[in-house]
């Protein structure tokens, strides 16, 4: 799933944002970005089910060995 930030601006100036496809606590790292983009300050947070899921990692681990004489 693509990672997205959805931002909704209401006629009264209220702004809501939601992260989609960002699992775990990683979504919290986007709060400052959203505040900078909108010029607003976060006053409340509600967590979606994705917050409680774990982000899968695509890390690759390489094993190396040292041979004598090389």
Descriptive keywords:
70 residues, alpha+beta, two-stranded antiparallel ribbon, 2 strands, 11% helix, elongated
Termini separation comes to 45 Å
**Please, what is the average pLDDT?**
82
- Helix count from the secondary structure assignment: 1
Percent of residues in beta strands: 15-25%
Low-confidence stretches: none
Radius of gyration: 19 Å
Name the helicity range.
10-25%
How would you characterize the overall build of this protein?
This protein has one helix at 31-38; strands at residues 4-9, 15-20. By secondary structure, the protein is an alpha+beta fold. The chain has a two-stranded antiparallel sheet. It has a domain at 4-46. It is elongated, with a radius of gyration of 19 Å.
Question: Would you summarize the structure shown here?
Answer:
The chain has 70 residues and is an alpha+beta fold.
Ordered list of secondary-structure elements with their pairings:
Layout: E1 4-9, E2 15-20, H1 31-38
Antiparallel strand pairs: 1-2
């Amino acid at each position: 799933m693509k990672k997205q930030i959805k931002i909704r601006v209401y006629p009264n100036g209220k702004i809501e944002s939601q992260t989609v496809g960002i699992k775990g606590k990683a979504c919290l790292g986007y709060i400052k970005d959203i505040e900078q983009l909108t010029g607003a300050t976060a006053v409340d947070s509600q967590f979606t089910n994705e917050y409680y899921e774990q982000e899968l990692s695509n890390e690759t681990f390489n094993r190396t060995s040292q041979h004598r004489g090389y």
